[in-house]
């Protein structure tokens, strides 16, 4: 019989949310709470702050939810910096674009790098809640290299 792997409890893994709009940060927080998702959330207003955190933390994030269009470092630039950093690449943190905006060009540009999805926030609170629940539930069931203790 093979021993079961020792997994990091998924509910303890933080969700990284990169969003420059404070109202959207608050809505995401409320939607996560309403969906009974209790993971800690690390909020960052821009890609540069998030990159510094990712380069220095010992935490094992569950997923990165990143807006596309932000001042300073865009979501695309952040994703490119993560892809170019061998240490961050080895962390294998799922990277999901989570935006209000989508068109063919944005989605094509998003998939030029290593990502695990492009999701719209939706037009209502219920849509936002459903989309977040879908993303988080999926990643709580999907293993990646840093899922193990």
TrEMBL record:
Biological process per Gene Ontology, one example term: phosphorelay signal transduction system
UniProt entry keywords in alphabetical sequence: Phosphoprotein
Phosphoprotein in keyword set: yes
Domain Response regulatory stretches: 14-136
Superkingdom of origin organism: Bacteria
PROSITE patterns the record matches: RESPONSE_REGULATORY (PS50110)
Keyword Metal-binding found: no
Modified-residue entries (4-aspartylphosphate), positions: 67
Protein name: Response regulator receiver domain-containing protein
């Amino acid at each position: 019989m093979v021993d079961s792997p020792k997994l990091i409890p998924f509910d303890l893994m933080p969700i990284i949310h990169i969003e420059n709009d404070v109202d959207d940060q608050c809505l995401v927080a409320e939607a996560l709470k309403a969906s009974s998702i209790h993971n800690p959330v690390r909020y960052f207003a821009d890609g540069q702050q998030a990159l510094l955190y990712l380069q220095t933390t010992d935490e094992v994030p569950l997923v990165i939810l990143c807006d596309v269009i932000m001042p300073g470092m865009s979501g695309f630039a952040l994703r490119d910096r993560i892809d170019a950093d061998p240490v961050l690449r080895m962390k294998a943190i799922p990277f999901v674009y989570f935006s209000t905006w989508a068109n063919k060009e944005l989605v094509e540009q998003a998939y030029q790098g290593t990502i695990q999805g492009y999701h719209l926030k939706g037009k209502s609170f219920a849509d936002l809640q459903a989309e977040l629940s879908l993303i988080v539930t999926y990643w709580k069931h999907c293993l990646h290299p840093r899922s193990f203790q």
